[in-house]
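Readers of this paper often ask what the protein records in our data store actually look like. Nothing more is needed to write down the fold, since each code stands for a local backbone conformation. Below, we set out a record of this kind in full and without editing:
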Amino acid sequence: LSSFISVNGKEIEIALEAELAQKIQDPMIVDDDDVGKNASNDKFIWMEGKPATGGGGRGWAEFIINLPESGTYALWGHVTAWDGNSDSFWVTWQPADPNEDAQVTKNVQFRWGVAGGPVWHWDRINHWLDAGTFDREWKFKEKGETLLRIAVREDAAMLDAIFVT
């Protein structure tokens, strides 16, 4: 999996390797350590740390995604989440979301609660609200360039790839 775009009628699918982000801000890093073995291309991104420690709050990856059509989109992440203290990111996708630094505001609208599991699995990006977890969708009024930011919320949550549907 590197990067591809498929447009079949109205069905749009875009796949991106996480380590190919246009910008990765420390302490989020690209890694090929055995802790993330079996990642596609043997690489993934994360804020290095031990599971169960929480922490995080700094570092992010930004992806420029050119949408071929206006419309409603969903995101999936190929992730590993060790436990309840290593299982979340902040996610904003502009221009559908406001220009807000979720790491600063801690706005739960942008909190992605990753489904737990110590092996790579696909998880739809959601709103992890205090009252429950709900799948997210983004509405774009125009086709063209968008900016997806996936930011560290907790150490040791790992991201291998992103799938746009």
Observations:
- Residues 10-164 form a domain with the Jelly Rolls fold (CATH 2.60.120.260).
